[in-house]
């Protein structure tokens, strides 16, 4: 059954501990902690591929075309959130795919 108050939180960022990259997913119903999964990626390209693949699976939209996002029934829609501090320091901000946390809510 489709539930209209679901979320899927998707983030790609460098892993400071290993020098690799992480893709983090958290999903569930609004108001509930939900579940999560962490993908450890050995390269920036691998993290980008994982991020873009998950974004497409959940939205049926390509990441590269997100400025022309087209909501699809029973899929997630895209809400952009920027949680960076606004500095230009490339090491402190997420630079894998974007410096944004991408929160996807259902359409």
Shape: globular
What is the string of SSEs from the N terminus onward? Answer: EEEHEE
Number of helices: 1
The oligomerization state is single chain
Biggest sheet, strands in spatial order?
Answer: 3-2-1-5-4
Low-confidence stretches: 89-107
Mean pLDDT value? 76
Biggest sheet character: 5 strands, antiparallel
What does this structure look like?
The protein has one domain (6-106). Helix content is 15%, strand content 35%. A hairpin with a 6-residue loop joins β1 and β2. Residues 89-107 have low confidence and may be disordered. It is an alpha+beta fold. It is built from one helix and five strands; from the N terminus they run βββαββ. A five-stranded antiparallel sheet has the order 3-2-1-5-4, covered by helices on one side.
Secondary structure topology:
Blueprint (H helix, E strand, L loop, with lengths): L5 E9 L6 E9 L5 E7 L2 H16 L16 E6 L19 E6 L1
Antiparallel strand pairs: 1-2, 1-5, 2-3, 4-5
Give a nutshell description of this structure.
This protein is α+β, with helices and mostly antiparallel strands and 107 residues long. The chain contains 1 helix and 5 strands, in the order βββαββ.
Descriptors:
5 strands, globular, alpha+beta, 5-stranded antiparallel beta sheet, 1 helix, single chain, disordered C terminus, 107 residues
